[in-house]
Amino acid sequence: MRPSLVILTGAGVSAESGLGTFRDTDGVWSKFDWQKLATPEGFAEDPAAVHGFYNARRQGLARAEPNAAHAALAELEAAWLARGGDFLLVTQNIDDLHDRAGNRALIHMHGELLKARCNACGTVRDCHDDLSIADSCTACGRDGQMRPHVVWFGEMPLGLEQAYGALENATHFAAIGTSGTVWPAAGFAEAAKAAGARTCELSLEAGESGHFFDDTAYGPASRIVPDWAKAMLDEVSA
Ligand code: APR
Question: What pLDDT is recorded for position 196?
């Protein structure tokens, strides 16, 4: 069977790049109300507040750089594919640090901070600057319809068919820097285990899907991910 590696990442992989996690002490949701800022209802009620929240995160992202964990995952993709394996990285993160590090077989299941979407025509475009409800759609021309291309609570994540297809054929699965509290990503470890994959959790501490992991490694992602990636390559090269 071809070695098929599926990796799920969460906010912990970007923490050392200076981007906040959500549920750690002083996490994003301890400072901001997710119901007002990360739901369709919150956007309908106060779009300016939602745009302000994501504009601030977009400005923060412009100051952030990929860290050693992002670099190791990009190198792992290239080397794994070169050895004839299948590789897919599914991230819950809306930052572009995996993209900038060089990962290409990549799904942003919760959308992308550097993209905007028109509520009227559905067109998605790049968005590196502040976004406001006053912006008009560059495709259909309508005003007042632009929103962040981010999946909010209660909305359908992106790329699930491709993700589950990869999980069904996975020989190896790793969850990196995620608390395993948000579905459907929280169910990926169980799906991989059911497919017979060897599963690994890499984080600061055990998440909520702990009993589905064969192996664990705890510590800062910038230290434990490069070590783990090297061990994976040794295994696939053996
Ligand atoms: N290195 C490795 N892991 C870390 C580090 C680090 N430096 N810092 C924190 N972590 C771990 C934490 O221990 C925790 O398990 O990263 C995880 C972060 O968990 P959350 O803050 O819940 O983030 P995440 O799992 O990505 O949240 C999932 O929830 O709010 C939504 O859409 C949002 O995509 C997000 C989703």
Answer: 97
Domains of the chain as residue ranges with CATH: 4-19+66-110+157-237 (3.40.50.1220), 22-63+113-150 (3.30.1600.10)
55-101 residue pLDDT tens: 999 999 999 999 999 999 999 999 999 999 999 999 999 999 999 99
> How many angstroms does the Cα of residue 226 sit away from the middle of ligand 1?
18
Ligand 1 probe mutation, 7, 9, 16, 23, most atoms within 8 A of CB: 23
Distance separating alpha carbons of residues 90 and 64, to the nearest angstrom: 20
- Report whether 115 contacts 126 (CB < 8 A): yes
Is residue 110 part of the annotated active site? The answer reads yes
Catalytic residue among 70, 108, 110, 149: 110
